[in-house]
Amino acid sequence: MAIYPLRKLPELPIAGLGSQWLEKLEAELEADGDRALLCRRTLCELAYPEFVDNWDTAIKDAKLPLATRLALSALDPRNVTLEPEYYAECDDSRFQRVKPLLWLWYSFDRTVAGGQNVELGVRLRRVLARYIFKRCGENFKAFQNVEFSFGYNLEAGDNVVVHRNVLLDDRGGISLGNNVSISDFANIYSHTHSIVDQRDVTDALTRLDDGVRITYHATVLAGVHVHEQAMVGAMAVATKDVRPYHVYVGIPAKSVRVKPNAPFGQDNVTTVKPR
Ligand SMILES: CC(C)(COP(=O)(O)OP(=O)(O)OC[C@H]1O[C@@H](n2cnc3c(N)ncnc32)[C@H](O)[C@@H]1OP(=O)(O)O)[C@@H](O)C(=O)NCCC(=O)NCCS
Fold it and tell me: Mutate which of 247, 251, 261 to test ligand 1's pocket (most atoms within 8 Å of Cβ)?
């Protein structure tokens, strides 16, 4: 293995545009106006600029194709439903505050300016996260296609990194410590269903402590506490608490080793029997 720090890229030819756009958006969020309108206008400017000034009349314009009117109407979060709204324990007063920002987050990822555009996408999500999460520390970094349940039930410490296509189901709450990394296609759950009656739901806080790494395609089930500096290997399913500095793999995930940098007294071996 080799140490490969991330490269610094040269400045983009029109880097200023993205910064100006984000500054404007941030100022509008701080002014605390109508978030649904902010979401609608921002998406309209990105995807259908010719309709920005006449959105209200365009959605009623019988001369426009129905599909066009539908696409325009969906720019406004009040015209779409998100799955968590159907959950009985959804706190409407909190969810309706964050819904426009979640819709902006998800929809931006489907635009040309968004999607795989790392520079702008990471910066936009960093701005939005501060207004969606219960708490968001410094340097939050999320790549494309990350999904939440409520969003408002999630706490993130400093330097948290969430890679592409991750599901953060914060229905029962998710707490992420500092320097947590969640790799591509991982799933972190905080709710579960009775095996007898699917409507019988248990919400349980799921905790990933400082320095935890959840690697590719791994799943952490509701209520699991992954202790500091632990690692959950690719494709693993963590069904029970994960001990600090341990590396857990498999289904159900078991410890296969202790990290060599574990502090004295943690476990004085580097390879442990799975349990
Ligand atoms: C968890 C992981 C880091 C373990 O690496 P490691 O400490 O070098 O462990 P080893 O490769 O020595 O494996 C120890 C044992 O666990 C098994 N194992 C390792 N990873 C496994 C996995 N994801 N699922 C099932 N078994 C696994 C190995 O086959 C080996 O079993 P054996 O002793 O019967 O031969 C690695 O396998 C992994 O999943 N990496 C994911 C990729 C990654 O690094 N992601 C980080 C992105 S941010």
Answer: 247
